[in-house]
Specification:
mainly alpha
Length: about 80
Amino acid sequence: MLAAKRERWLVIDPKPYVGDPVYDALQHILNFPDRLVAEPVAFARRMADLLDIDAERLLLWLFARCVQESVDQPYLNGVVRELAP
């Protein structure tokens, strides 16, 4: 939330991924690296099922973010290989 001139308060989404509800699940998955590394596909599919969202879309988002994050977090390299389309 920011103070703003046109409104007293203005709410923004500081992430560059706006509009796709699947992205929220992705953020949650990334907060559990042990579960992600152990079973990335099963973990993502379980989250998609629980949240009633498209599992294939979630897997693609997860692949993209793991590729991006693997530069600084090499433990994700195995996850990337397992998720590769």
